Amino acid sequence: MRVGLTGLPGIPDVQPGADLAALICNAAGETVLDGSVVIALAHTIVSKAEGALVALADVIPGERAQQIAIEHGKDPRLVQVVLDESSEILRNKRGVIVSRTRHGLVCANAGVDTSNSTDPATVVLLPRDPDRSARELRARIHALSGAETAPAVLVTDTFGRAWRHGQTDVAIGLAGLAPMEDWRGSTDATGLELRATWLAVADAAAGAADLARRKDSREPVVLIEGLERLITVEDGPGAAAIIRPGAEDLFR
């Protein structure tokens, strides 16, 4: 099995209301965007196109936001946005707010992004429904491309890990790609039964895409080839299927 990763140049700065699917198809040129390709998108361009932006000048921080801001030396308006985007604050220490978002994602600062905004006074939120965003983009790209089959669409974000240094991209939105690959009940190369092997293949694809997308490259879209066995005709359950339910949360 061979997997190929290609950063897609030519994506302009995305503005609210932009036809993101058309921008991707135009940038792809002669490249066929069909069912042999996974299109991995940094969530920020999806959020920008959908208008998931907040101007800090419009934010009035509450008492809790002001207190946390004092503790961490942060802008209280930014803290208020993080609180607004959180369903639960899980950790608030060492200058980091770890929260559970309304999507059920556990990440730093509720996914509120300041580094990829062209205006330092505006922050980028996560898409309201990343799986729906992926489904709509998939359908639109399929219609525009005229390809016989639809590509898979993967929306990614960068997450830290509580038990390891560094960050890696994970899947937060997904359409047309299996989120997991279940090997439980099958056997390995030696015939040993596998009891716990349940691979988060969508997260692996998201992390791989990040290798082809330098943080300063302005290439928020990566084309992944070689994952045909994981690409599905139906949109599938989306990245929501990867989120561990609260009752199974090993940190609670």
Please supply descriptive tags for the structure shown above.
252 residues; alpha+beta; single chain; 12 strands; CofE-like fold; 60s Ribosomal Protein L30, Chain: A; five-stranded mixed beta sheet; three-stranded antiparallel beta sheet
Q: Could you name the CATH homologous superfamily of the largest domain?
A: CofE-like
Question: How big a fraction of the residues is strand?
Answer: 25-35%
Which architecture of the largest domain would the CATH scheme give at its second level?
A: 2-Layer Sandwich
* Total DSSP helices: 6
CATH class of the largest domain: Alpha Beta
What fold name goes in the CATH topology slot of the largest domain?
A: 60s Ribosomal Protein L30, Chain: A
Oligomerization state: single chain
Sum up the overall morphology in one term: globular
Return the domain count.
2
End-to-end separation: 39 Å
- What is Rg? 19 Å
- Helical amount: 25-40%
Largest sheet: 5 strands, mixed
Please write out the topology.
Elements: E1 4-7, H1 20-28, E2 37-42, H2 43-50, E3 53-55, H3 63-72, H4 76-84, E4 86-93, E5 96-101, E6 106-108, E7 122-124, H5 130-145, E8 152-161, E9 164-175, E10 181-182, E11 198-199, H6 201-211, E12 221-225
Parallel strand pairs: 2-8
Antiparallel strand pairs: 1-12, 2-12, 3-7, 4-5, 5-6, 8-9, 10-11
Helix pairs in contact: 1-5, 3-4
